[in-house]
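Technical note accompanying the year-one report. For the benefit of new consortium partners, we illustrate the data format agreed upon in the data management plan: each record pairs a sequence with a structure-token string. No post-processing was applied to the example shown here.
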Amino acid sequence: MAITPCAISSIGASAASTEKIYADIVYEDDGTIEANIIFENMPELASGGFFVTIGDGWEFDIDDFGEHYEPYVRQHASFTSSQVNDKKLFFTFTTSHNYNMNGTVISVHLKKAANNTPNNSTVNVDVVLLSDIENSNPIYEMTNPIMLSAHEYMIGDTNGDNKVDARDSSFLLYVLDVNNNQPLYVNNIKNNHTTYFPNAKCAAAADVDKDGIISTVDSSLIRAYYADIMSEIPYNGIIGKIDFFEIFND
């Protein structure tokens, strides 16, 4: 079965409602890999600077314009980047007024190195300065979530055979039955998911609706996906596509 990349939001870093800046690694529809730098629950800002450091499993890529990144708030902020070394970029941004920067701020282009593994596929952000327009002093000196690993997986592949079919739906129901028909929470089992899904690449493989909860709803969605595929009905969802599940220290 062909593996189709996609861009899906990370679960690991977005559970808490505190101020944070982190990376979410995604496949774009064209197969390119991006590290989306996300501001979450931050106040309005006017300027800042931060480093983006990639693990040994990545190399920086460039787009058709010779850039390492794509800004998502270009209409509000001006960005400048400089390459510190082959694993680190420094970014600065400025605006003419305080602006809500929450969401994806920039997207850094990546490609896999020959030695790519989950444990060396990290992308981390280190903030140097964040400030509003009235205050020339730093208003944030942050300790950000540290990415410990990034696991590539197929959405819906609960049994780890690199495809999604009715057996994945059935196995998910079996796991829930063994768990006394109680749902499982991705963040609770992310470090010991093989206790429940021995061959799955990560806990998120079973959470096909991306709500952080593994339940009978996910099994039903997998079953519906497989019915569409076998009936040659066009399917535009995310099941069967590839994503990254990042594990952070928070």
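Partners are asked to follow this layout when depositing records. The chain is about 15% helix and 35% strand.
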